[in-house]
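Q: Here's a chain of 552 amino acids. Please give me its 3D structure as tokens.
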Amino acid sequence: MNAPHLLLVLAVALSSSHCGALQARKTPADPNAEVESLLGESLRDLPIPAEAMAAHRLAYDEAKAQLAREPNDANALIALGRRAGAMGLVREAIAVFERGAAQFPHDPRMVRHLGHRYITARRFEDAEDTLERAAAMVQGQPDEPEPGLMPNAQGVVIDTLQQNVFYHLALARHLRGDFDGAVAAWRECMERSNNPDSSSSCTNWLCASLLRAGRADEARDALRAITADLPIVEYHAYFALCRVYQGELDGDRVLLEAQAKGAASTDYATIAYGVGNWHFVNGRHERARGLGRSRARTDVGRVRAHRQRGRDRARSGPLNRFCCGAALVVMTLGSGGCGVLGGGPRVVGSMREVMRDGATEGRIALVDATAGEHTVAIGALEGLQGEFLCIGGDVWIGRATNPPASTVTHGATDADRATLVIADDVEQWMMVPLERDRDLAGLDAQLAQAQAKLGLPETFAFVIEGGYSDLHAHVLAGKCPYQDPHVAVGTTTGARGRGLFVGFFTSGPAGILTHHGQRSHVHVKLSEPAPFVGHVDAVVFDAGSTLRLPRR
């Protein structure tokens, strides 16, 4: 269950149910595509670091040469297929292991890896059938280590053959929506897990399947073996997710910390799915859906996102987005363990990633990011070609035209994509009048006090409506204006005015939701003297303005 395995795990969709499996074509219609999504979209690229790709390529070439010299070398054939899969050569990996299963019919390793790659190709029924064959082959046999393709920090082998057989069988069943069948296989996997890493990874998925099957008490029991002092070597993401399910860690905080390390990392993608499932089983379906969509920037994420959309389109009825019929039981867990009902924002991209590193590609459709009727959101368009804010699902977009001019549009189109989004769903607000004029620093101080007094989460949305003065704001025009102040359209006014301000406050680390040295990220919508939507650099809010805070 090392790095190549993680690429499979992240194929899981929050929409799995008992309504039958969706399968991709066995051969993609696009000859250049390795995999075809469940909507028929060609998927080609995998976010593989250059250093890892070079190591895979070297081992791949060595295995290919060895197999040419010794065509009956089962180990060389397995090495070739595993490296091909790790490099994103999914069709080749399947062909290699199909050859191996025919050439070595009594070697369970061939069938285990073939089932693994069928999952990558969205051939979930084929995967389940194949892995059930592998499970039958290993029953009653001695187990054996299965070294990872990339060694971990301590150079120890964590996984075994039999553990991975049942792990991937459980995963195939989970993907098909057979959560009870998945639980049975996770328990077989657990019996073969002999170290904290493998136990944590298996417990995470066992808990996820139990909760989706409506078996919350069993999920709580399974989590009792996970303690804070477990010596984890490699699977830190799974360990953290177990702690989230226990209620010991906040899922959104774990997600933010993972994102700060790089949104293309396998740890981030693993945690994004896990936190999405955590939100889902706690009844926060919009947040779960937002996290599923937010991973659409990578091939791994697109596996999940396209599976979600495929099921969205295939179903009808009142439960058409996430479940079908009574087979999927949505559990809202209380304080007895397994789940925390606290909230937090959905985050796509980060300030550090977008503004400092220049990763400004379109990560998510704006209509998807702001779809909920209670959604509050701010962010930047792809390519830093504008700013937006959303309140109650209503979106306004500011775009730079010819400096110093900008335009404002109401509503998002299917063509609008965002590179940075901070969003939350707030159904009820409490109103707090500003008792004195507040600049941004003074506002931060008041929000910090409210956070402590009211028990608000680490990151929360807020809205201010009322008068202002000394407003300095900008609209992005292709680059970060903090690095180059000439690339933004700005507005500065000493006159008094009235506006709508939407923002997020965080007591967490800077560089994710906020610029360094700041605790709030605020956007403004003005109607007079001319329509304007942009990012607030400085402002003084008038006493008597209304501050809205989430009612928890």
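Q: Can you summarize the key feature?
A: Confidence is low (pLDDT under 50) at residues 2-22, 294-343.
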